[in-house]
Amino acid sequence: MSPVNLSDVVKAYDVRGLVPEQLDGRVARALGSAFAQVVALPEGEQGVVVGHDMRETSPELAREFAAGVAAQGVDVTMIGLCSTDGLYHASGSLDRAGAMFTASHNPAQYNGIKLCRRGARPVGQDSGLAEVRDLAQWLLDRGAMHDLPSPGRVGSVTETDLLADYAAYLRSLVDLRGSRPLTVVVDAGNGMAGLTVPAVLGAGGLPLEVVPLYFELDGTFPHHEANPLVPENLVDLQAAVVEHGADLGLAFDGDADRCFFVDERGHVVDPSTVTALVADREIAKEVAAGREAADVAVVHGAIVSRAVPETIAAAGARAVRTRVGHSFVKAVMAEHEAVFGGEHSAHYYFRDFWYADTGMLAALHVLAALGEQEHPLSELVAGYARYVASGEINSTVGDAAAATARARAWAQEQGAVADTLDGVTMTREGAPMWWFSLRPSNTEPLLRLNVESDDRATMEQVRDTVLRLVRQES
């Protein structure tokens, strides 16, 4: 057996690697045993719930992980094929720690694991994942799982199907039965939305006509990568929306925890715009239930559009800004008891979904907002899209700190003020207003640039200037 370095596959928030070169059954079993020892047993968990996506290697890896957990005396509930938010639902509803086998939007040769504590609480590098990695590495290096203390029993491994419960729970949070009839094209990208969309949106009594694209579960992704963040992966959906005269289009990533939206013209709706729209709805829901708006908090990632905090403030609620990344968003949401959280990457988090992210619940909100009135989606979201953004642009750099310093110095000469919550954000108020954010990648020699302004000409000028400074040789 070749040596395995788990530092290469255990990332900041999850496990991700090539199969079988970096991630195989032996590694999955070691990670399962370590997860039981580090997370399940110390917290007195009643068990661990395990789900997996449609990749060919996922069922075997999930079984080996479950065997590792059970070997430590912890019971395992296998829920089979599911989306990542389906696993979070299982963790929350069963009150158990969880493991989801998926590589999300990565190509077919990859697989991975997303881990959580009971109640869908995240397990990241700073909240147990590093300890899981180190113990699993120790087990692999010794080649002997029996070196762990004997639990006195082997945990049970049982199977159950929670798809119907997941779908019913989501529909209980957003009622579409009073909506006007809508036609929606859904691109599942051969990912798990091919299973979850029929269960949630295809239920009887909903006034929806669903036009399916690539609903066949196929982990080789024969049509396009299941990564809607890449514009070319949305081309088929955009064309189908126009062809069918649909009211909107939905695109999910491979594990169906993110959802992207296309309006009736085939134009992509920015995730910041969706964040503002859903925030408005969640705040209004709390106020209708008798809460003071000032007591309602909504969390947003550091680089969403300025329209997001402005929308929250206009509704009388509190906007709380946090670093990019699900572990940060979830922690800040729990701290402030926020009703909702959103990021520029189309991750949408809900208090009523155990503070976890679910693209399907965001989709239900957008469908409900559209169906409650007569205007097309492009008009509905226009009020939330009042700035011009560049989208995220990556640059490969040898010295990220020096590149950032050059851009920061230029911005300060223009009167911009620095904020260092997440990388550096430089903001210049006045007319025209602009801001840009530069964040280094955690795993690659990349700087990620986002720019926003009042108008396109200014945005493009700032974008091009910063890119030139970032990419110039030191």
TrEMBL record:
Belongs to the phosphohexose mutase family. Residues 392-467 form the Alpha-D-phosphohexomutase C-terminal domain. InterPro entries: A-D-PHexomutase_a/b/a-I, A-D-PHexomutase_a/b/a-I/II/III, A-D-PHexomutase_a/b/a-II, A-D-PHexomutase_a/b/a-III, A-D-PHexomutase_C, A-D-PHexomutase_C_sf, Alpha-D-phosphohexomutase_SF. This is Phosphomannomutase/phosphoglucomutase. The lineage of its organism: Bacteria, Bacillati, Actinomycetota, Actinomycetes, Micrococcales. The keyword Nucleotidyltransferase does not apply. Transmembrane segments: none annotated. Residues 10-126, 165-266, 276-387 form the Alpha-D-phosphohexomutase alpha/beta/alpha domain. Its cofactor is Mg(2+). Keywords: Isomerase, Magnesium, Metal-binding, Phosphoprotein. It holds the Pfam family PGM_PMM_II.
